[in-house]
Amino acid sequence: MNVFLVVLAGMLVKVLATDDPYHDVQPGLKTTASPKDNETFVEGISPKENTTKYWHDLNEAVLQEKLARKPNKGLAKNLILFLGDGMSLATLTAARIYLGQLKKEAGENSFLSFEKFPYTGLAKTYCADSQVADSACSATAYLTGVKGNIYTVGVTSSVGLRDWENMKNESY
């Protein structure tokens, strides 16, 4: 039994000591030992991010910027709707990380250009008959304010897919 445990422990050490390209935190970025405390840093990640002060200062700066912004209480003359079809929050996060990695940074702290807009909003999308929206029912809801069924465009959820007669009915 003891020999088995020793062999098992040896195998575990070998596995943990081997480079694993499938579970690398930052693929393509080399890790280097820090000159102090035997810590390991990944290329592109700023060592100052390891300090509490960095995060407190960053959050304080963002908070002060938001508090200094004067609310716009005027009536909008124009409105620009910036729509990203298929851009879920997870997709935005992946794009942000990729953008940062292209700059040889970690990526999580990068910003996409539209994330710096002064006023933004999110809308959850789903079809009346489906938890996952397609472009047709999303566009219908966005343009009319009324949800439709999946694979239908410009009609209410009273009209089903291939319901040709009701599609001609202007009340739908």
TrEMBL record:
The keyword Signal applies. It is an enzyme of class 3 (hydrolase). Residues 1-17 form the signal peptide. Its cofactor is Mg(2+); Zn(2+). Keywords: Hydrolase, Magnesium, Metal-binding, Signal, Zinc. Zn(2+) binds at D85. PROSITE patterns: ALKALINE_PHOSPHATASE (PS00123). The keyword Metal-binding applies. InterPro entries: Alkaline_phosphatase, Alkaline_phosphatase_AS, Alkaline_phosphatase_core_sf. The active site is at S135. It comes from the Eukaryota. Binds 1 Mg(2+) ion. Mg(2+) binds at D85. Transmembrane segments: none annotated. Its EC number is 3.1.3.1. This is alkaline phosphatase. It comes from Cuerna arida.
